[in-house]
């Protein structure tokens, strides 16, 4: 068949159905009113890149919306990437902007978006496999997915993505075989279309993004605001902050376990492992009214030792040789970048009126955030504090720089001035200055304060937060 959409009659609550994009075998849809179930059959090679091929059952709506259904893919032995989707789509064109909750044949469940017509598709893989019930929600330009086990309560699956879907658009269910010569079937039951709840609560997700593909994965989702993650030295786990404690969670997902930092210490802000992986530095204060100080403790276990004397002091990073800590501290009327030997002693003022500092992997430079050029940008100096150079420019403000361990990339956050909306995670090639976008986040809470590169330099870690 050609890529033209062939419309069929209304099915249940939906106004129409048809094949989107180029398919070899025509799809179909049936509704069993007694069972409140839709059986959708679809062919199609894929729903990815810049064009889709699948069978879609739809109705037109506008405004904020939720679509919820029990989802079950039928049959065995099909392509593991065949998909049953709950979709919100701007048009019926094959390259339309869209967002969907996609349940794959192997159980993988993802939030997928094509943020604009003709753009490439991206996804956030959830840490939940094969949910019984799924919901996709639209709030303005932002989309998120909720899932539930059999008989369980729907809860956010983690991660939020943005897509330009405006005015009147299509909402519905669909199936893609992920094989142009096959037809796959899925059952969508107890389907509901409604409006999001008016009450909102904050949720946060520890996420990773793969540099090569820019695809994201939700590792752990928690109600409330949590601190930005850093990688365990082996690359198999992430450490994050929640309610004054440090927690470790497997990078593949699972339940976090607490890290004991000692009685009376309330952890805050940033934290990170020494280059040899044996020691963890973290920011904490003693008691409810204490000021932030920097502590270090053996990873294998043992008592935490306070390094700094002046307060407040907030950890940023380690020198490559592990002998020096670099941090931010309020001194006088400004926040500045300071250093101190890891064994303790006298602190050194390195960069006045600056923050977010990290050494480059070779120890030659220190990257930091400053307003010295008139807007918030990333700068660098030599390790002794001399030779300041501006690294980022343009209309966006940029902050929270983190260099990759191989010295090839610089990751940082970017946003428009005075905006509480979208924030971009970006990486710059230090060889030629080329900048790539890894993803967009809603601007709230800590996102990428801690050292965020995986040891193999293939992934970044950050926190995304949203209120719904």
Question: TL;DR of this structure?
Answer:
The protein has 468 residues and is mostly beta strands. The chain contains no helices and 39 strands.
Question: How does this structure look, described?
Answer:
By secondary structure, the protein is an all-beta fold. It folds into two domains: 179 residues, Jelly Rolls (Sandwich); 266 residues, Neuraminidase (6 Propeller), CATH 2.120.10.30. It is 0% helix and 54% strand. It contains no helices and 39 strands. The strands form eight sheets. Strands 1-6-15-8-9-10-11-18-17-39 form a ten-stranded mixed sheet, with no helix packed on it. A hairpin with a 2-residue loop joins strand 20 and strand 21. The two termini are 42 Å apart. 48% of the residues are buried. The mean pLDDT is 95.
């Amino acid at each position: 068949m050609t890529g033209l959409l062939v419309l069929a009659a209304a099915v249940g609550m939906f106004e129409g159905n048809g094949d989107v994009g180029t398919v070899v075998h025509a799809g179909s849809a049936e509704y069993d009113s007694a069972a409140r179930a839709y059986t959708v059959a679809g062919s199609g090679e894929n729903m990815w890149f810049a064009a889709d091929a699948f069978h879609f059952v739809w109705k037109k709506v506008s405004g904020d919306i939720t679509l919820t259904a029990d989802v079950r893919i039928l049959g065995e032995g099909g392509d593991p990437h065949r998909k049953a989707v709950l979709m919100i789509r701007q048009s019926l064109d094959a390259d339309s902007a869209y967002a969907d909750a996609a349940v794959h044949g192997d159980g993988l469940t993802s939030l997928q978006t094509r943020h604009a017509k003709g753009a490439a598709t991206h996804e956030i893989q959830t840490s939940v496999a094969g949910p019984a019930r799924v919901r996709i929600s639209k709030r303005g330009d932002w989309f998120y997915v909720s899932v539930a086990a059999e008989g369980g309560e729907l809860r956010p699956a983690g991660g939020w993505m943005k897509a330009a879907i405006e005015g009147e658009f299509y909402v519905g269910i669909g199936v893609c075989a992920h094989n142009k010569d096959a037809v796959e079937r899925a059952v969508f039951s107890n389907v509901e279309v409604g409006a999001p709840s008016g009450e909102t609560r904050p949720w946060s997700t520890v996420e990773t993004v793969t540099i090569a593909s820019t695809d994201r994965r939700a590792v752990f989702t928690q109600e409330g605001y949590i601190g930005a993650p850093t990688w365990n030295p082996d690359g198999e786990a992430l450490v994050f902050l929640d309610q004054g404690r440090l927690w470790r969670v497997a990078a593949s997902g699972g339940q976090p376990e607490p890290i004991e930092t000692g009685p009376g210490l309330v952890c805050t802000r940033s934290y990170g492992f020494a280059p040899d992986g044996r020691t963890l530095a973290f920011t904490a204060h003693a008691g409810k009214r204490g000021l932030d100080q920097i502590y270090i403790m053996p990873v294998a276990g043992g008592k935490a030792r306070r390094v700094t004397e002046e307060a407040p002091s907030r950890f940023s990073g380690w020198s490559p040789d592990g002998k020096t800590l670099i941090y931010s501290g309020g001194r006088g009327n400004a926040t500045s970048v300071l250093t101190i030997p890891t064994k303790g002693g006298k602190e050194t003022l390195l960069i006045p009126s600056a923050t977010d500092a990290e050494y480059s992997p070779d120890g030659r430079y220190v990257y930091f955030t400053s307003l010295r050029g008139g807007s918030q940008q990333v700068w660098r100096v030599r390790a002794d504090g001399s030779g300041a150079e501006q690294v980022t420019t343009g209309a966006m403000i940029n902050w929270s720089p983190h260099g990759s361990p191989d010295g090839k990339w610089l990751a940082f956050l970017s946003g428009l001035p005075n905006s509480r909306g979208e924030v971009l995670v970006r990486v710059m090639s230090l060889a030629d200055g080329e900048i790539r976008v890894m993803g967009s986040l809603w601007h709230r809470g800590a996102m990428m304060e801690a050292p965020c590169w995986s040891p193999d330099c293939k992934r970044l870690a950050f926190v995304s937060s949203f209120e719904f």
